[in-house]
Structure formats: C-alpha cells, structure tokens
Design the sequence.
C-alpha cells in the first residue's frame, strides 16, 4: 500500500509573465484539516491589511510533494516526474489545558529520477533528493485570551546522490519565528499584534550564489549599495518582522502596520515568499455606519497611506488609497477602491539589473452583487489601471444558481486586456552599454488579451454522497512589438530599436543598438505567445463510514501553445478542442480509526 496524499481538485491554469512564483492554495485534505494552527503571525487582530506588503508564509504545505527542481542534461526526449512522492507523513494538532495550541507535521519524500534519451541511448538522472520536512508550532494564550505568545520552527534537510543536483537545490533550510498579540484595553477594542523571524539556508557555493541572484533577492544589482553577490558563501541568513496596531470595535476603525524583510531572508524551503529587501509601512482608518437608513443598511468608508522602500533607501512604492462598501435596502451590495501611486523607483523591472523610474499611475475597481439569500445571485466587477503608456482592464461576472436545495451551479467568466509599455524580454552583456553598467536590458510593448471562466456544479445526493464538477477554459495571447532597451539607469527612457541609428530585423528578431557602431547584435527572440487550456475534473465523494471517505476522481486536461500573438477567440477555441486530452482516473479512500 502506497499512501496517497494527492489532491482530488485540479489547480487552475494561470499565465505568469512576472519574475515571481505562482501561489497555489492547498487542497489536499491531509494538509488542510487542522491547518489553522500553522497560521503564523495571525491572532488577536481581525484584519491584516497589506498595501504592497508581501507577507512571507513560514509554512507552505505544498512544498511537501512539490514538482522536482532538478534540471536535465541535453536530451532528445525526457520523462520527468510531475511530483515528488511522499513516503510517509504524520500530523498532530490539538489543544492542551484549554490554552495551549500545538501542532507538528513530519514528512519524508522519496528521491525522484527522470529518464531521458540522447543520441539513441537512455539515461536516468536524479532530479529531487530524499528530503525530510519538519514543522513545529506552539501557541499559548494568557489571561483568557487577552495575550498570546507562540513560536514556529521549520527544518528541511536533503540527502543527495548526484553532486550535480547539489548546485541546484539547497542542502538545508531552517526558520524560526515568534508571534503574539496583546489587547490594550478591557473591551478588546485596541490590539497590538506582530511577529519576528529568522531564516538560514545552506548549500554549495554554486547553489547559494544562484539563490543570491534569483528573483527573491537580486543581489547582483549593479547599483546596490548595501549588499552584493558573495560567490564563496555556502549559507545565507536573514530576518523579518511585522507589527500591527488595530482599533477594531465601534464605528471608527484603524489599522497601522510596519514590517521589513532583510535582503538575505528566505523561507522557501518549507514556506513561501515573493521577495526580500523591503521595508513597508501604512496607516489606514475608516468609519462604518451600521444603523439602517432610508437608503442603506450598511455603509463603510475608509482610506490609507502606504510606502515601500528597500534597504538602500530607494522608495519602491507609495500611494493613497480609498475604499468603500454599501449594502442597500434590497440586500444588494456594492464595493469600490480608488488609488493613486506617485512616481517612485523600481528595483525589479530589470530583473537584477539597475534601478529604473516607476511612472505614476492610478487604479479604480468596482463590484456589485445581488441578494446572496436568493436562489439566483449575480455579481459583476470591473478594474482598470492607468500609467505612463500602460493600462490594464479587467471585467467579469458571476452567476450562482440553486435550482433545488441540494444543487448549486456557478459560472464566472472574465475578460482582461493589458497594454504594457515596458514588458521584460531579455538582457545581454555588452561592454559598450556604459549607461547601464555593461549590460543591455531589452523590453517591448505588449498587448495581452485573456478570456476565461470557472464553471462549477455541486450536487449533494445525501449527507454522505456528493458530486462536484469543475471546468476552467482559458485563452491568453501576448503580442510583443516596439522592442527597445533601457537608455540609462534610474530612468524610464528607452532606445526603441529601429530609431536613433539602431536597427531591428523582424525576420530573425535581432537588434543592433548602434547600427554600424561597435556594439554587438542583440538576439531578442520571438516572445509572442498564444496559450490555450481546458481543465476539468469530476469528484464523487462517498462517506461509506463515519469519517471514512471514498473518492472517485476523473481529471481531464488539454492545452496548446503557439508562438503567435494574435487573439482570435473562435479560432483559438477550435484549435484547443482539437487537441488530444490527458485523462486521469483515480480512486482514493481514507479510513478513520476510532481511538
């Protein structure tokens, strides 16, 4: 018997053109049940506003059983594992003496290999080492919940057989954090909450150099003042913290926060984070009216100021934000957001290169929903962002229908349009690029169209037997044009290829920045894309004994990718339906032992 910790619900398809990892929510019952104890840094406060703050998760359970990370040698064909098998895992969560919350997860995943073929011969190579993951969490409440103090610790340790893999994956990762809260008055209206943490990762000097240069850190930035790449280091350490003061009772509410993540902080062995090197603060307040009037049942208005900077003192983001929501007498509701962001400095646009200017912009969003008590609930939303030469627009609707009490159907289509004035393409070393530290940073204007939908059916036959269907079509295209390079560091000025003495060849996507001058050719490549996906699954759940469940799962996926930027819905959809699907049938059962 091979224990199965796999999820039965499929992940949605996404288009990620950024430099950060996509976050997927946990859906595996083993990790979902009782997971609230591992929510580090939360408790006491009712809200944790962010405003450009990317909060790190010390424990991200999808690291256990993740897709292998190892690369493959040159090959003609490869069979690469889709995930890492969990050999064994245990979880213990509970409450002791009424005020101690404890939790631990222990897991080991097996060594994974990929098979590949090259020049007529077949080979096997290690792509994921044998790995131990340990998570420990304790939290104690004092004075009937007026105060709390807790800690979390994670340990990740790997055992390699292939020395090549040591330069691609961390040997170990360790984190430790303290969190807690304290109410500041007897009515629990005011609360102070926060956390502090530290991380330490180990590996070969090649691996730690790679970590320093990845998108979470960008230590190689040529104009960085307080850090740089240490190619001899075999470890990396960092610290982080976040503190809140909330006023959360009464009509007037307030939320303020301060947080920082040092450049070397990294929790991604057992946790999840998008980026380090940030200092963030915000102050927000608002007022809600809860007594019904002749016009509304509930009204809330608020606003906030926020600022982001890095450890070099560059202001990376600032803004003023207004939000509001209202519930009308007929139980319809509406919410809106308005924001303005002044010009700041970007330390990420060049993906490890020099700073650039970040143009000012504004955003507006609006959503309207009908009475949620009804059998038919309709919602619509819209969002737009405008900046210097860039703009985004997204609109969608949602329909929830309950034809009978035990059946619900939801349909959520959307469309988005994105015009990006400076979409990242590539970079190339060139000694003649003196204004950008000896490297050319290539961008392009891009028009992206995306259309998709989420379709879901829930049918409860009886309390022990249910059926769930989910389908997600997605079509997205990106058309790149007007290729250009950054003219000078700390600016938003570009040399458009084909102008000012430069040339651009549309046949092979190559550029010459100075025509007949000494600069070399820049091979841009064709980044146009047209991605189409259809994902769906059906899950029949039968609780054959109390606490014991049998799942019958059918998952179907089909996709298509082309290097073209044209968006033609009918043609794209027909091509998608012509693709051969991948079908997976799975039976999963659990048995509850009463002890």
Sequence:
């Amino acid at each position: 018997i091979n224990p199965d910790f796999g999820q039965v619900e499929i992940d949605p398809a996404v288009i990620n053109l950024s430099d950060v990892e996509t976050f997927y929510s946990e859906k595996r019952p083993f990790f979902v049940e009782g997971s609230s104890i591992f929510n580090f840094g939360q408790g006491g406060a009712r809200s944790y506003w962010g405003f450009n703050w990317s909060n790190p998760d010390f424990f991200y359970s999808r690291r256990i059983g993740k897709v292998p990370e190892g690369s493959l040698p040159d090959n003609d064909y490869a069979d690469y594992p889709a995930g890492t098998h969990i050999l064994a895992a245990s979880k213990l969560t509970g409450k002791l003496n009424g005020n101690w919350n404890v939790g631990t997860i222990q897991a080991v995943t097996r060594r994974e290999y990929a098979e590949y073929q090259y020049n007529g011969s077949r080979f096997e190579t290690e792509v994921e080492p044998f790995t131990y993951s340990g998570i420990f969490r304790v939290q104690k409440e004092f004075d009937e919940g007026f105060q709390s103090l807790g800690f979390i610790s994670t340990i990740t340790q790997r055992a390699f057989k292939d020395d090549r893999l040591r330069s691609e994956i961390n040997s170990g990762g360790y984190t430790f954090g303290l969190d807690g809260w304290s109410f500041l008055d007897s009515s629990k209206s005011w609360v102070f909450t926060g956390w502090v943490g530290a991380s330490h990762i180990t590996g070969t000097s090649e691996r730690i150099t790679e970590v320093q240069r990845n998108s979470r850190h960008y230590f190689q930035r040529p104009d960085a003042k307080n850090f740089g790449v240490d190619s001899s280091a075999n470890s990396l350490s960092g610290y982080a913290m976040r503190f809140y003061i909330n006023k959360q009772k009464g009509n007037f509410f307030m939320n303020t926060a301060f947080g920082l993540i040092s450049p070397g902080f990294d929790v991604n062995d057992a946790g999840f984070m998008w980026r380090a090197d940030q200092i963030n603060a915000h102050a927000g307040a608002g007022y809600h009216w809860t007594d019904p009037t002749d016009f509304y049942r509930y009204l809330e208005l608020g606003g906030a100021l926020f600022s982001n900077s890095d450890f070099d003192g560059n202001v990376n983001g600032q803004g003023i934000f207004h939000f509001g929501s209202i519930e009308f007498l007929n139980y319809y509701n509406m919410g809106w957001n308005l924001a303005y962001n002044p010009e700041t400095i970007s330390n990420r646009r060049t993906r490890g290169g020099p700073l650039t200017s970040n143009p000012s912009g504004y955003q507006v969003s609006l959503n309207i929903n009908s009475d949620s008590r009804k059998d038919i609930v309709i919602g619509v939303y819209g969002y737009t962002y405008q900046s210097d030469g860039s703009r985004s627009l997204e609109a969608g609707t949602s329909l929830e229908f309950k034809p009978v009490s035990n059946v619900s159907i939801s349909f959520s289509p959307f469309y988005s349009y994105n015009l990006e004035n400076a979409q990242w393409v590539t970079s190339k070393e060139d000694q003649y690029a003196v204004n950008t530290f000896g490297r050319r940073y290539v961008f392009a204007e891009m028009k992206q169209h995306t259309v998709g939908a989420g379709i879901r059916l829930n049918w409860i036959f009886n309390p022990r037997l249910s059926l769930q269907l989910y389908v997600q079509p997605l079509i997205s295209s990106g058309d790149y044009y007007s290729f250009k390079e950054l003219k000078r560091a700390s600016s938003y000025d570009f040399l458009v290829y084909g102008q000012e003495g430069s040339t651009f060849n549309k046949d092979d996507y190559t550029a010459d920045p100075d025509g007949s001058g000494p600069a070399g050719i820049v091979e841009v490549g064709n980044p146009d894309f047209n991605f189409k996906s259809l994902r769906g699954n059906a899950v029949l759940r039968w609780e054959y004994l109390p606490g014991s469940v049998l799942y019958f799962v059918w998952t179907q996926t089909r996709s298509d990718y082309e290097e073209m930027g044209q968006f033609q819905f009918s043609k794209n959809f027909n091509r998608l339906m012509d693709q051969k699907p991948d079908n997976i049938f799975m039976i999963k059962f659990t048995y509850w032992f009463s002890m």
